[in-house]
Amino acid sequence: MSRVTLVLGGARSGKSRHAEALATRYNQRIYLATAEIIDAEMRERVDLHRAQRGKGWQTLEVPLDLAGALRDADRPGGFILVECITIWINNLIYHDKDVAAELKLLCDTLAKLKGRVVLVSNEVGLGIVPDNALARRFRDEAGRANQALAVAADEVIFVAAGLPMVLKKAKPPARRKPSKTSKRARRG
After folding, report:
1. What is the enzyme's main class (predicted)?
2. What are the residues whose beta carbons fall under 8 Å from the beta carbon of 42, sequence distance 6 or more?
3. What residue spans define the domains of the chain?
4. Which of 139, 137, 138, 166 is nearest to 153 (CA)?
5. What is the pTM of this model?
6. Element housing 156 (H / E)
7. Cα separations (Å) of 154 from 5, 44, 157?
8. Omega of the bond prior to 107 within 30 degrees of 0, cis?
9. Which of 3, 62, 175, 187 qualifies as a FRET site for 88, CA 20 to 30 Å off?
10. Which residue in 49, 50, 97, 139 is the catalytic one?
């Protein structure tokens, strides 16, 4: 089973619904929300998402220190859903943080976690080239983040029209080879 899963897709592709469905068999579910509520429309979106998720989730708002929040929330047998990487990238750019350094810290942290983590991110590189420098920077940073997280993840899923497509499959656990002593014991 995968420990870290990256779920990619476009806006309204069904990626969040798919990511949330991966949590159904876990009792301890934590939702790390990266969105900063800056206006009434964003508040309505957040409230709608919470209602759709239903009960059984602990929600933590984490606009910047994602690696720290993951370390704090990590529990063996637990499930953490990060929604979403592209909003986190936006926050880092807005607050003038070093995106590359934060991304490296996130990838290093993912390698050390004990529980199950699902990261949701938008694939923003399938459209036209943005017409301004800030939008191009965002697209580039998001693309680099998705590539780095795909390497760090055990499994990568792309969702289009609500249909999940596996891009990277988790490797099954390695089977232990019997030692020479155990082979001799079986021969008898």
Report:
1. transferase
2. 35, 36
3. 4-187
4. 166
5. 0.88
6. strand 155-160
7. 6, 34, 10
8. no
9. 3
10. 49
The helix (H) or strand (E) run that includes residue 42 is helix 40-53
Per-position pLDDT tens, the chain of length 188: 469 999 999 988 999 999 999 998 898 999 999 999 889 998 898 888 888 887 889 999 999 999 999 999 999 999 999 999 999 999 999 999 999 999 999 999 999 999 999 999 999 988 889 999 999 999 999 999 999 999 999 999 999 999 999 999 988 766 766 656 555 555 55
Cα gap 44→51, rounded to integer Å: 11
The residue type at 24: T
18 has catalytic annotation:
no
The CATH number of 4-187, from 3.40.50.970, 3.40.50.300, 2.40.40.10, 4.10.320.10, is 3.40.50.300
The DSSP call for residue 114 is: -
Task: Compute the residue count for the chain.
Answer: 188
